[in-house]
Amino acid sequence: MIRAAALAILLGLPAAGLAQVAEPDTYRTDHYREPVPGTLTGGTVVDAEQAHALWQSGEVAFVDVLPRAPKPPNLPAGTIWRDKPRFSIPGAIWLPNVGYGEIAEATHAYFRAGLNRVTGGDPAHPVLFFCLADCWMSWNAAKRALEYGYTTVYWFPDGTDGWTFLDYPVERLAAEPGEPVAQ
């Protein structure tokens, strides 16, 4: 991974965040913002420089799976809620909430539809998944894409934190249409 120690320091992560984590057999279903494994069986793990080279090639579909921040419960009546803007890798699509360990059938359908759109329905089309540093959502999403039958899957565990650390460009993204309302 890219300069993991420097990135951890800048992000205020504890030194334990640099420890090796074993790849689980199943999806991660809780504590999504913790150290992640350095592997993804069936996929290719890339660092920021490699992700940037894939992005520059224009041949890889980039999929941001950062979850959407939930609307706080018990907001006073009449309170206007505005989603936090998502700044991400230019040209990526944002499929929020598809990286949870367990997802509803509507979320599976949303995820599959988004992947189908960016790959032109070709399961061999290269696709790269990311979120933030130490976020299991992207690992889960990449694992799920492999289970859906995608064969050229990249996982970028440093996500937009690693991307912006190297001062690569970002742009504001809107979530892909059709996002299920409730999990």
What does the model show?
Residues 89-172 form the Rhodanese domain. This is PQQ-dependent catabolism-associated CXXCW motif protein. 29% of the residues lie in helices and 12% in strands. It has 183 residues and is an alpha/beta fold. It has a single domain, classed as Rhodanese-like domain (Oxidized Rhodanese, domain 1, 3-Layer(aba) Sandwich). The strands form 2 sheets. The chain has a 5-stranded parallel sheet with strand order 1-6-5-2-4, with helices on both faces. A two-stranded antiparallel ribbon has the order 3-7. β5 (127-130), α4 (136-148) and β6 (153-156) form a beta-alpha-beta unit. The chain is globular, with a radius of gyration of 16 Å.
Summarize the entry for a quick read.
The chain is an alpha/beta fold. It is 29% helix and 12% strand. The chain has one domain (1-12, 42-69, 86-183): Rhodanese-like domain (Oxidized Rhodanese, domain 1), CATH 3.40.250.10.
Helical percentage? 25-40%
**Average pLDDT value?**
89
Largest sheet: 5 strands, parallel
- CATH H-level name... which superfamily? Rhodanese-like domain
Envelope shape: globular
What is the CATH architecture term?
A: 3-Layer(aba) Sandwich
CATH topology: Oxidized Rhodanese, domain 1
Strand percentage lies at 5-15%
SSE run: HEHEEEHEHEHE
Main-sheet strand order equals 1-6-5-2-4
Give the number of DSSP strands.
7
Distance between the termini: 32 Å
Rg value: 16 Å
Number of domains: 1
Determine and state the CATH class. Answer: Alpha Beta
| DSSP summary: helix tally | 5
SS-based class: alpha/beta
Task: Outline the low-pLDDT stretches.
Answer: 13-18
Protein name: PQQ-dependent catabolism-associated CXXCW motif protein
InterPro entries: PQQ_CXXCW, Rhodanese-like_dom, Rhodanese-like_dom_sf
Keywords: Signal
Signal peptide: 1-19
